[in-house]
Amino acid sequence: MTPSPAQGPRFSPLSVIALIAWVGVLVALSMWMGQLSYHWLPVQASTAAPLVDGLFSFETAVGTFVFGGVISVMVWVIVMHRAEKYDASDAEPIEGNTRLEIIWTAIPFVLVMAIAVYAMRVNTTLGMLGPMEHIHLRSSVEQAGGYPGDRLPAEQVEVIARQWSWEFRYPGSDVSTTELHLAVDEPVTFRLVSEDVLHGFFIPAFRLKQDIVPGRAIDLNVTPTREGRYRLRDSQFSGTWFAANQADVVVESVEAHQAWLEAAARQPLQSGLSDASLEYAQRGQSRKAGWATVPPAPPPQVNVPGSNTQPHDG
Amino acid sequence: MTLATFPASEPKPSWTRYFSFNTDAKVIGIQYIVLAFFFFLIGGLLAMIIRGELITPEADLVDRTVYNGIYTMHGTVMLFLFIFPVLNGLNNLLIPTMIGAPDMAFPRLNAVAFWLVPIFGVLLMSSFFVPGGPAYSGWWSYPPVSIQNPLGHLISGQGLWLTAVALSGVSSIMGAVNFVTTIIRMRAPGMGWFRMPVFCWTALAAQSLQLIGLPSLTGGAIMLLMDLVAGTTFYDPAGGGDPVLYQHFFWFYSHPAVYVIILPVFGIFSELFPVYARKPLFGYVYVALASFIIVGLGLIVWVHHMFPSGVAEWMRNLFMFTTMLIAVPTGVKVFAWLGTLWRGKLRLTTPMLFCLGGLFNFVFAGITGIMLATVPIDLHVSNTYFVVGHFHYVIYGAAVMGIFAGIYHWFPKFIGRMPYEGLGKLHFLLTFVGANLNFLPMHPLGLMGMPRRVSSYDPEFAFWNVLASLGAFLLGVSIIPFLLNMVSSWVRGPKATHNPWNAIGLEWLLPSPPAEDNFGEHVPVVISRPYGYGLGKPLVEHQAEIEQALALAEQQEAAR
To answer: Which of A87, A122, A236 has its CB closest to that of B383?
Structure first.
């Protein structure tokens, strides 16, 4: 009897049970990895964070199952289907199986489309929490400090990115600072502008990232949900001190935030934080060879420089 | 038909031909590969400096300007001077011999395309020595940071970089015209499309992508060069330009470029798994066609690199769907390889180990790729070390390991000597462990929020960075057994027979190394599909006589 290639191999009941058991193990492992994946991410400090993390956990679980399945087959054939030492013969020639081809085209198709639909719904939810962003060309009116639009939440913060410092302006309170302060559970709109090159506005604990494009004002909405001190990092390469272009984000209670704003408004203007300026000043004395750089912009004049050396939560 | 005779006493060609304007595709292939590995060592050395800097949180090993120049040059050298040239080298060796052509369609154009590589290579390297140092804005060279030109000189590192990349584009277009024409026009009699080896299918797919995509990058780079040196404002918002426009030009090519790299590696996997599992390639027709589905989809996914750049919500969703779809034809290939291995008779030779390791890494990279395609996840991890980890799994874990597999597999054919198995397996072990130790820790770093391209980082990232650096140093060591193996087996390795792996394919019906014009006048007539392992059907007419003649010539050679 010659088995035809189109016919699947016959399995013994024992091997079917073993296969089902192994799939069960993989499913359990995948669900465990899905739960574990929450610990690989920073603390959740915005309304967006649980949505993003849920999606990531789901994809980690699915991915673990796919990876585990493929690697199981590879390990199985390496252990079980090795040629004997002096066996120079060929294996049984199976050239293909159309039914299998259709199955393993259809299953990944359905799987990735399901993931994409789920992700699109998360996108929509993120959009309902506040439009993810809104792009304007920067007009002279806006540069003069006008903030048109009726959908802006309670607080607006203008974020000015430079080579290499962050400046935050609270137009409602006439305060500027180099440390970002936000009230917990209060929606806030950032208006992101850049004075020079591309920068990226990235607060890992908020799970959001938006490039800042010179010549545009980009509105980005977020609602912080957890008090604490977090990191804002530049995420789009911006030149020599790109890595040092970080600021702290303080999320505090509504009362504390109001008190901070009032105290800040009374502070005189002083130099804000700019690690780049400090390093640039020392550069002449350092013996380390370097290549050319554009000089850092002078540190912004702000009411509250704040600090970027305290321990942060994420 | 008169049988080909293989004179055993052909004058041995001089080694100096490798340093000349030679039009033989097999010479050009070896020129490409050797030159590519020279630049691989330079790119690797730069990687060692990067990982040396990142083993501690502070920017303490080199100045930040130096770090930025070095990471930029690492990416540029590895892509434009290592991986594209090494793949073009394999194309030159394999395409004519696999389809039974005497040479490429345009041999002189082929040589010009090759000799442009050392020219733009020297140009790029010279940028280390111009005042101000080399380009420092990453291999993307996004404006405006790439056109800041701190010293204001006409000749700057960035200007040399852009010129080199534009020349690389010209060289690649010349190569692509040649490869596509050769595959379409010069196949052996009887070799219809569905008798063509999968490597040639993938090469055709990849080189078609080059022809469609490269004009976009080359044009985009020339406009950037004009902004840099001539004061135009194509990308400057102050002059009515748009910096995001450059990103579209760049990624319209540079995402497909990933498929230009990985498709031929899929071809290598598809060639090698059947040989070392002693089975036909499972679902040959599907595997062949999947390459062109990847070409079609690969051209409409580029915006996934720009999800945080400020693109409209509907575009994010659209490009998420197209990107996800690429998993389908890719999955078809992965399952086909598993089907090929299933119930095979596996021989774990060095090339097979590299293929298996490459497949392992590729599946992992595919899963992180799906995560990156998902817009909300991407908004968190884009421009972080998660991406760096993902693409190093693709490029090093899968593509470079596949290339090593190909080199070990076809070395006997084109050099005429056998590589050493022991050194090969040591090379595999160090590469596999080193790559995973180097690139796996980058994923948790990215999830935690460590941006890429940083010369310093917060102390909470130190642990995973130390592991990654140790892995990188191990990868640095892994190249030593490879180089030892290549040099020593080239000089004094055991003589290779015409078909040491007992493989099926036209190239294995040529002597090792083949004559300059391959089959010459006596191109065999192909009568079967490739990969007929276990089927007992000959690939070509008069196969037994051809093999007898080859064996006889080898016996005479041995007797002398």
So the answer is: A236
